[in-house]
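Tutorial sheet, problem 5. The two components below are modelled jointly, 521 residues in total.
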Amino acid sequence: MTRIGILLAIAAAGLATPAFTASALAAPDTTTVTGPGGVTLRSVTVDLPQSDREFPGADAAAVNNNCLTCHSAGMVLRQPPFRREKWAEIVNKMIQTYKAPIDAGDIPAIIDYLAQR
Amino acid sequence: MDQGHRVPMIGRRGFIAGAAALGALQHPTGALGALVRNVDEAVFTTAFPQKGRMILQRTRPPLLETPFEVFDQGVFTPNDRFFVRWHWAGIPEQVDVATFTLKVHGHVDRPLTLGLGELLAMPRLEYAAVNQCSGNSRGLFSPRVAGAQWRHGAMGNARWVGVPLKAVLDRAGVKAGAVAIRARGLDEPVVPDAPAFGKSLAIDHARDGEVMIAFQMNGEQLPLLNGFPLRLVVPGWYSTYWVKMLSDIEVLAAADDQYWTKTAYRIPDTPHASVTPGETGYAQVPINRMVPRSFITNLADGARVAAGKPLALRGLAFGGDQGVARVEVSADGGTTWGRAQLERDEGRYSFRQWRFTAPGPAAGSVRLMARCTNTAGEVQPLVANWNPNGFMRNVVETTTLTAA
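Model answer (structure tokens):
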């Protein structure tokens, strides 16, 4: 099963609000609001792509387990090389500022991975 | 659906559970190994709704950059090529115009809940304005810095139509002693207790009559990823203030003490927001007005041109929070400069196109530069600024060609 498949399955199973599904899946976006000058706004429904990209490599388990909750891997993989201290600072910011739920025990493996990339 | 929007199915707990579940999976090798690539290589995508071909910086939450050639196609950036930048992945995938509301509350006489119909009926404002990410061109910082590695495509210019924020604030009746407004959109963090994105503006700025609650961009409703149905437009200021999917305006009686204003998006309080790498102990201020920039758009780095033949150049400039007074162009690495012809003026906050014909270059390497001076006399520096967040680049850029 792909990541997307799993996530959709989990999300669908966990989706407790029936009102959600009804209005989200049934009606096409025909609702409009019109103002003076013929300005019309039309309801919008989109599907935002998800990413099934993982951090590559045999030592990537710690980053894959901890760094994909809030954002997909692309931007992290596009970072320039940084020294360990800088990566430690970034990981610490994810935890302290953005409340990343990261196991303290995983931190060294995360920093090792990022610094060696 | 009483709130007029639907959050993505992969919401807070859903995604965490998903990520945790994945942690238990084995990580296949093979195909994934092939993902290691040069970080500077652009990856294009057409997978995003209401968007054409974009440079993919990140899928979730989306960071999409405008491919540079789009800037050569005109002074306005098409909506489907306009850059996209979200901080948190809790982005609604559905917005219902009939039930969407904008709340105005806090230090006001009459808290408001405005529907889109009510906003559309208010007096309107229209102007062109550049929307530029604080970190546009961050990928060119040297030494390099952390954050989205944008080249120059985290900017765009559009004609915005909306309601002056002042009119909405006046309707709510701002009480004496108000110091700021804080704007919030529908986007939400995907973990508990994390700081939701919001930005504040000083009350006088919010009431300057120019800051706009926009509902149209280039004559159409905004693409969802650019903030449908409402976006704050703060002309002349960096994009971080242009809150997308604007749904909540709180009038504050004390300075904003939340993370995104108090701690994030701060710049050194120094000329060009520049410091020496490693420097500490300098004062910082919230990022604010933009500074002049200019770009050659019809020739890219590495292009080959005919030696001895006049070189027709074309580009864009903007003055930051002022109009463009002049653009000068050099075809010899900055030794001599000639004045470019400015095209139609679309307003103080807009991109301005320019043209220049450089004398035929001698065979060899040719270094082209464009330099904008704004109507307040502020000119682009010849030396790049540096700060740890990669904000506010506006050095004179160099395009290097080969003449043969």
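Marking note: Residues 164 and 212 of chain B are 4 Å apart (CA to CA). Full credit if you identified this.
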